[in-house]
Amino acid sequence: MASADPKTIAAEGLWKNNPALVQLLGLCPLLGVSNSVVNAIGLGFATLLVLTCSNLAVSLIRNQVTEAIRLPAFVMIIAAFTSCVELLMQAFTYELYQILGLFIPLIVTNCTVLGRADAFASKHSPLPSMLDGLMMGTGFALVLILLGAVREAIGQGTLFANMHLLFGSIAENWTITLIADYKKFLFAVLPPGAFVFMGFFIAIKNLIDAHQAAKASKEVTTGSKRVRVTGQIS
User: Fold this and answer.
1) pTM of the full predicted structure?
2) What element of type H or E holds 176?
3) How far lies 26's CA from each of 3, 19, 30, 206, in Å?
4) Interior CA angle at 165 toward 107 and 92, to 5°?
């Protein structure tokens, strides 16, 4: 059973067991709509909300459902919260909802959400389960936003374009133009570009982990003391 320690849960969700960089779950929506920051924030926040709420609900009913109906019950809970998020987006961010399209209802089939419900929430009390959903959702959303920022910057030469679709009229002037008269790089905003950039992110994380592991190993070796015994036994 996974640890319920808050620090461990946070470290697992944000870095050590990040859904996108380590588990490689939910890649279809991550690669499909991460061509801009606003799309990434919209889908990331929606996924985070569903993941947190479904983890809490699954934890609350974990002792009331039998093994035979466990997974169908979890899917129904996830579908209910996904429908709530979908209706909220239709009411308050309808244009963004239309852009994200099918990827919002597809949160129901996101392996990250169902995986955390089955692997963690069904075995732990409500508070750790909710924290696990929050941290896993945040880790997924951060990777999504970073990927969206890189793809938007390289593909369109801007950052935070069309943020009014999510935050309203207050965000109409948030667009940052990185290069004037930029010739758009179409590859970056298409799905193949998402695969390439995601591969770079995974490689960078693996390099950082390898460096930290080597550093920790070196510190242990340096800190250990060797005792040399010489002499003769008569």
Assistant:
1) 0.90
2) strand 176-177
3) 23, 8, 6, 19
4) 65
